[in-house]
Amino acid sequence: MRVITWNVNSVRVRQERLLALLARHAPDVLCLQELKVESGGYPHEAVQAAGYHSTVLGQKTYNGVAVLTRAAVTEPLVGLDDGVDDPQARLISVRVGGVRAVSVYVPNGGAMGSDKWQYKLAWLARLRRWLERHARPAEPLVLCGDFNVAPDALDVHDPDAWINEPLYHPEARAALKGVLDWGLSDTFRPLHPDEPGLFSWWDYRMLAFPKNRGLRIDHIFATAPLAARAERAFIDRDERKGESPSDHAPVVVDFRET
DNA sequence: ATGGTTGCTTAGCAA
C-alpha cells in the first residue's frame, strides 16, 4: 500500500500537477490539504477519470482537505465533529480496505502569542480527542497531513533561527507529541535515521528551495500495526521544481502487504 | 525588525 500526503496550495492551480502525480506514483491513498476551494469547485470529474475516488471537505478561499483512493471507501468522517463552532475545513477521514486514512491541515499558528497560535495548540488537543472518539491504536490507521510542526532539530534547516517560531516552538512540538502519544509513530524518520536536509516545505521567498532552507512539517503517522510495515519513504522534491509548484513537496510511504 | 512570494480576491489576508 502506497500512501502520499501533499499540501497542494490550491487544487485548481495545481490540477495538472495533481493528475501527473497520480500517474507517476500510483498511490493507493493520497491525502491533500489546502484545496482553497469549495467542495463544488473540486475537480471531481478529472480525478475520477484518472481512476480515483475523492472524499472532499472544501472551503471557500482557505483550508480544504481531501482523501483520494483507488478503491471505494466507507465510513467517511467529516470535520473534527466536537461541538465547537469552527467553520475551518481541516479534517476528513475514510475507511478503505481495512485501513482508516485521515487527512489533516493543522493550523499554521501565525505569530507567537497571537489568536492563531492559541488556535493551533487548541486544534492539536482537539485532534487528540477526535482520535480517542473515532479510532483505536490497535487498528490500522494513517494520520497524514500538513501538521505545521517540525518534530526534531533534524527536521529544520536552522533550528536556532526557528526555535521561537510556531512551526518549531517547544510548545508546538509538545502539542504534536500529545497527539502521537495516543498511539502513533512517524513512518518517515525511522527509515532515514540521522539524515539531515530532508524537508517537505520551503518558503516561496528568499530562494529557500534552491538553498534547501526548509522544514519537514508534512507527515504520515501510523498506528503500530501499520508502522511496523513501513518499508520505504521519500519526499518527491522534483514536485517542488519547475513552473508553478506548491510550496510543499509530497511525502510518500510504502507499506508491506500482510 | 523588515521583506521576500504565491493564491484568492480584487486591498488585504494568510501562509
Oligomer: single chain
Give the percentage of residues in beta strands. 25-35%
Number of helices: 6
How confident is the prediction overall: mean pLDDT?
A: 98
Summarize the amount of helix as a percent range.
10-25%
How many β-strand runs? 14
- When the domains are counted, the total is 1
Q: What's the shape? A: globular
* Most strands sheet: 6 strands, mixed
Strand order of the largest sheet: 3-4-2-1-14-13
Return the CATH topology: Deoxyribonuclease I, Chain A
CATH-derived architecture: 4-Layer Sandwich
Which superfamily, in CATH terms, is the homologous superfamily?
Endonuclease/exonuclease/phosphatase
In terms of structural class, how would the helical and strand content be classed?
A: alpha+beta
- C-alpha termini separation: 10 Å
Layout of helices and strands, plus pairs?
Blueprint: E1 2-7, H1 15-25, E2 29-33, H2 44-49, E3 53-57, E4 65-69, E5 74-78, E6 91-96, E7 99-105, H3 115-134, E8 141-146, H4 159-162, H5 170-180, E9 185-186, E10 201-202, E11 214-215, E12 218-222, H6 224-227, E13 230-235, E14 251-255
Parallel strand pairs: 1-2, 7-8
Antiparallel strand pairs: 1-14, 2-4, 3-4, 5-6, 6-7, 8-12, 9-12, 10-11, 13-14
The structure holds one DNA strand of 15 nucleotides.
